[in-house]
Design brief:
Largest sheet: 7 strands, mixed
Bound molecules: 3,4-dihydroxyphenylalanine
CATH superfamily of the largest domain: Bira Bifunctional Protein, Domain 2
Number of domains: 2
Strand content: 15-25%
Number of helices: 12
Radius of gyration: 38 Å
Helix content: 40-55%
CATH architecture of the largest domain: 2-Layer Sandwich
CATH class of the largest domain: Alpha Beta
């Protein structure tokens, strides 16, 4: 029996070392290690041998099986290495695309807005997210009993301070810290204590704009905002200015964009009207100039505020504002 094992061993070594392709290797594997191989038959017959013989043959059989399995594996690696070296790899197989991260869609939108406004001569100004009543309301001509406060459901924090409900307080801070001419945009996150739905969120982004100098006129405001929207959405997009009201501007206007989700036909995002309100704007109210110590007889200016999330929604055809903050990569990968 041991002699027979030796013979099998020799034949098998020869077969594994001379195998040149996958087929001959597989044939050798089946012949010497397969279920129907002689080696396997010997293993199965071990139980019929007497104990002494069983121990010796058993050990020799196992050693041989291990050796042959290793030889088989070696031969397989030799072939793979050969294939790599001769270029016999299937280069038409689709590759694995590495997953590459990128900046969030809202940040990319903000960067795009900043780029457009920079070319129009605006510089970026930033302000604190935790504000005081004066900058967020009073200085913007929203006294404590003003109904506009109802529209700004506010999160209050310790010490009577609050989370800013809009980016307009940055106007006040900039005007307090320098003299005209001023031409700034103030992008950033704002907070409202309200229930969220497809078009409302308790945190969202705004971008504020302010231009103050001598002889600033409504015509320039209209021109700049129209130019901005055409840069962003293309020359052919519909833009309309409606009369509006804001405590800090007089006169005031609300600017609508033809809905980009349904292209004006009417959908849930535009509530069936074909138009989406994107901007509030107007000429800076003299009371605001007084609050920051500017002479309203000398200076005029315009201001505007826009909802960045709305702009992102219109740019990407997204119909639910909440998707922006849910951090679901299946969504973020697509926009
Ligand atoms: N602060 C306003 C809001 O949050 C938006 C706004 C409207 C800003 C008109 C302005 C403006 O500067 O002129 O609803």
């Amino acid at each position: 029996m041991l002699d027979r094992l030796r013979e099998i061993g020799e034949a098998a070594r020869e077969a594994f070392s001379s195998a040149t392709d996958e087929k001959s290797l597989e044939d050798a594997r089946v012949a010497y290690l397969g279920r129907k191989s002689e080696l396997n038959r010997i293993s199965r017959g071990l139980k019929d041998l007497d104990p002494e013989e069983r121990r010796r043959v058993g050990r020799a059989t196992n050693d041989l099986k291990k050796e042959l399995a290793a030889l088989c594996e070696e031969a397989r690696e030799r072939m793979a290495e050969g294939a790599r070296r001769t270029g016999a790899l299937d280069l038409t197989l689709p590759g694995r695309v590495p997953w590459v991260g990128r900046r969030h869609v809202l940040i990319r939108t903000l960067e795009r807005l900043e780029e457009i406004f920079r070319t129009l001569g605006f510089e970026v100004a930033l302000g604190p997210h935790i504000e005081d009543d004066f900058h967020n309301f009073d200085a913007l001509n929203i006294p404590p009993d003003h109904p506009a406060r109802d529209m700004h459901d506010t999160f209050f924090v310790e010490g009577g301070r609050l989370l800013r409900t809009h980016t307009s307080p940055v106007q006040i801070r900039v005007m307090q810290s320098r003299r005209p001419p001023i031409r700034i945009i103030a992008p950033g996150r704002v907070y409202r204590n309200e229930a969220s739905d497809a078009s409302h969120s308790s945190e969202f982004y705004q971008l504020e704009g302010l231009y103050v100098d001598r002889n600033v006129r409504v015509g320039e405001l209209k021109g700049v905002l129209t130019k901005f929207l055409h840069e962003l959405y293309g020359q052919d997009v519909g833009v309309r200015f409606r009369a509006g009201f804001f405590p800090f501007t007089e006169p005031s206007t609300e600017v609508d964009l033809q809905c980009r989700v349904c292209r004006g036909r009417g959908c849930p995002v535009c509530k069936g009207t074909g138009w989406v309100e994107l901007l509030g704007a107007g000429m800076v109210d003299p009371r605001v100039f007084e609050a920051v110590g500017y002479d309203p007889d000398v200076y005029t200016g315009y201001a505007f505020g826009l909802g960045v999330d709305r702009i992102s929604m219109m740019m990407t055809g997204t119909d639910d504002i909440r998707l922006f903050l849910e951090n679901d990569l299946r969504f973020l990968d697509q926009v």
